[in-house]
Hints:
Blueprint: H1 3-11, H2 28-34, E1 37-41, E2 47-52, E3 59-64, E4 69-74, E5 77-82
Antiparallel strand pairs: 1-2, 2-3, 3-4, 4-5
Amino acid sequence: MSMMSTIVAVALGLTPVGHDGTVQPISADQTRMIGRFTETTDDTGTTHLTGVNRNTGEQFYLTVNPYGRVEGSVGNWAVTFQVSKVA
């Protein structure tokens, strides 16, 4: 699955983050739970992810800057975390 799908899954609480910060790739079932979302990238390289949480019906809006900083909202919740690819 794509990195952006995994970021959405973490933000929605569909996949846990380990104590060491690792996240397992999401499954096909988790991908179906996410549903569709839009992904756009602006001229600064920031990716914008928007969609609706299928479990709660709440909208989510996330931004991922080029350095891996994720910020946004899921319904009334604010989310922020850092992502990086494992070497």
